[in-house]
Amino acid sequence: MDLIVSVDRNWGIGKNGKLLFSIAQDMEFFKDTTLNKAVVMGRKTLDSLPDGKPLRDRVNIVLTRDGDFRRDGVIVCNSLEELLDEVKKYPEVYVAGGGEIYKLLLPYCDRAYVTKISAEADADTHMVNLDNEPDWITERSTKDFTHEEFTYRFFVYERVRQK
């Protein structure tokens, strides 16, 4: 599995169930990266999408503790074990949030696509800071792009597996 996320300078990812920033190029990057792939998210992340509908042209997998949860166009998993069995069916899987899902699934990810925004927002949800994780390294990054009053950059992190 891989992970895809957009973070502020403190690795904040959201506030009140919404993204911290809306950057067209970042949204396009997310779409291009995950199109025709499987995406894993929590129920709250699914609910935060327009009309609470699954992402088009992707396999949408939702991990939730709610055993009664159902939504058209979504595969529902109620445990980590069930999710790990489900994702084996797909050649490419992206973890797409939210905060609890990122933390839970980070140990199962080998690569992380991180859009780092050089601004601070009043976040109530954060991602693990991969810069402070000894088993994650920056594989590559882009140049800075500008959006309104701040810059952002796309990073690819890779997990370094100990032998």
String of helices and strands: EEEHEHEEHEHEEEEE
Percent strand? 25-35%
Please report the distance between the alpha carbons of the first and last residues. Answer: 20 Å
Topology, number of strands: 12
**Alpha-beta content class:** alpha/beta
Estimate the mean pLDDT confidence. Answer: 96
Largest sheet: 9 strands, mixed
Query: How much helicity do the residues have?
Result: 10-25%
Produce a short descriptive summary:
Helix content is 20%, strand content 35%. The protein contains four helices and twelve strands.
Characterization of the model:
29% of the residues are buried. The protein has four helices and twelve strands; from the N terminus they run βββαβαββαβαβββββ. By secondary structure, the chain is an alpha/beta fold. The strands form two sheets. Strands 1, 4, 5, 6, 7, 8, 10, 11 and 12 form a nine-stranded mixed sheet that branches. A three-stranded antiparallel sheet has the order 3-2-9, with no helix packed on it. 20% of the residues lie in helices and 35% in strands. The mean pLDDT is 96.
